[in-house]
Design brief:
This protein has about 475 residues and is of the alpha/beta class. It contains 20 helices and 13 strands. Strands 1, 4, 5, 6, 7 and 13 form a six-stranded mixed sheet that branches. Strands 11-8-12 form a three-stranded antiparallel sheet.
């Protein structure tokens, strides 16, 4: 089955290469990380990927000089499967270090300390009660958990803690095992909705969720402080060593504490992100123009999220955007190009999207003759949209002359678009359009495809159903 994500393409999945995990990552040119979609780990807000874990992972990938590929954990009961098979390099999902987990994987040094807390619903009318009265309706002493029902995932550290606590208090706690697909934030939400009685969560996550679920109470701890860290395969000691060295240095820098405050100590900002219709955590919209993007994407048979990723790259969804060169609107067309697409003036966001799609359609008609594979052709279209058709045609001609594959973008044609900044190449007889600063359109294509992956990770396809694409890179 095809996927909009470009992963599973490096051909380095398992075997002895796992021992040299760090070298494998550098050779692949990509760090593959598993995380969860949550208010602290990874989400989309106003078209941008965000999250404490995501930003740390992105920083570490930059430190290594490689790209970052994010994969979302679909079932927490199988959280380490891809790690153990070598399909992923690191798990960063607010993981508590436990004895049982340490038998399976290695953990980095911790980057957070937190406690486990009980998540319960406040009594009806709590807003008019004094705190002492509210406390009478809630569990404040773990001894009172005997006979109570609490729902958690069996694979979570919370499950083992509740088993231990049941022994400690000498009374049975009724533990309901939730499906592995449910994250701790989803279980918190079920408590807020009154669909389950109680759950357990990490205090840092619970406090953030409490800002937008004021009806829940998270003030009853049931554990001592616990360490939160990332996990790597036991067959990747060099990766573990590098991660620990990097984490040790990073945690001593002001930027780390700024990042921590951003996600854990800014309740107002967290609430705004959660309650926004442009958050993947709640509203599920990418932009205010999603309906038009969906409509016009059908015209070119693109996944609407791919078109949205390109429009974000062009204008950050600002319909008033103007470039220094005179390009304007959501799709940043030059006035002359807009006229060629049939628009003397563009006065609305919808017109801008339609004009941009018409240009894509025109470029697609050209490249169909040469690049049969649709997923590859999209990369040629994006580059042509950014830098102009002629420069991409030149790069393709250079690829042919130098015995590279002219119908493959990554590692083939894009290489020669970059080389068009050198006299040896832009003065070559096969080149018709001269000098080009090709690193910019190459980055443009990669940035859009990366953002598209983030949108696929967090935002549903929705109707109409259009087949998704496989934008796998050829390893460089």
């Amino acid at each position: 089955m095809m996927s909009c994500q470009g992963h599973r393409s490096d051909g380095m999945a398992d075997g002895d290469e796992g021992v040299m995990g760090l070298q494998r990552i550098k050779a692949r040119g990509k760090l593959i990380a598993l995380t969860e979609t949550s208010s602290t780990s990874y989400f989309i807000y106003k078209g941008r990927p965000m999250g404490f874990e995501y930003e740390l992972l992105h920083s570490f990938a930059n430190h290594l000089g490689v790209d970052l590929e994010i994969r979302v954990i679909e079932n927490f009961d199988d959280i380490f499967t891809q790690l153990l098979t070598g399909e992923a390099d690191v798990v960063a999902a607010n993981l508590t270090i436990t004895k049982e987990r340490k038998k399976i994987v290695d953990f980095t040094e911790y980057h957070l300390l937190t406690r486990q807390v009980l998540v319960q619903h406040k009594p009806v009318g709590w807003e008019k009660m004094k705190q002492t009265e509210i406390d009478k309706h809630l569990i404040r002493n773990p001894l009172d958990l005997a006979g109570k029902t609490i729902e958690v995932r069996k694979s979570s550290s919370f499950y083992q803690r509740l088993l231990n606590l049941s022994d400690e208090i000498g009374g049975k706690i009724n533990i309901v095992e939730s499906p592995g697909e449910l994250s701790q934030e989803e279980l918190i939400r079920l408590v807020a909705l009154g669909e389950i009685d109680m759950t357990v969560a990490d205090e840092n996550v619970a406090l953030i969720n409490n800002t937008y679920y004021p009806d829940i109470d998270v003030a009853t701890p049931i554990s001592f402080p616990q360490r939160i860290a990332w996990a790597v395969s036991k067959s990747s000691p060099m990766l573990l060593q590098e991660l620990n060295r990097w984490l040790h240095q990073t945690k001593r820098k002001p930027a780390y504490y700024t990042l921590y405050r951003k996600y854990f100590l800014s309740p107002k900002a967290s609430s705004e992100r959660m309650n926004s219709e442009y958050s993947s955590l709640s509203g599920g919209k990418i932009s205010a123009f999603d309906d038009d993007i969906r409509k016009f994407s059908q015209r070119i048979d693109w996944d609407w999220r791919l078109l949205a990723a390109q429009i974000y790259q062009e204008s950050h969804f600002n319909p008033e955007a103007r470039s220094w060169a005179g390009a304007y609107g959501l799709t940043q067309l030059m006035p002359g190009t807009a006229r060629q697409m049939g628009f003397d003036t563009i006065t609305t966001a919808s017109q801008s999207i339609e004009a941009g799609v018409k240009l894509i359609e025109k470029l697609d008609n050209y490249w169909q003759t040469y690049v049969e594979d649709k997923d590859e052709r999209i990369k040629f279209i994006l580059a042509s949209y950014n830098v102009g058709l002629g420069h991409v045609v030149d790069a393709r001609q250079l690829a042919i002359k130098n015995h590279y594959n002219p119908n493959v973008w990554f590692g083939q044609v894009d290489k020669f678009l970059i080389l068009k900044s050198q006299p040896k190449y832009f003065k070559d007889p096969v080149v018709k359009y001269g000098y080009c600063r090709g690193d910019e359109p190459v980055k443009y294509v990669q940035d859009i495809l990366n953002r598209y992956e983030h949108y696929c990770n967090n935002i549903g396809q929705t109707e109409p159903e259009i087949h998704s694409h496989n934008f796998a890179q050829t390893p460089r």
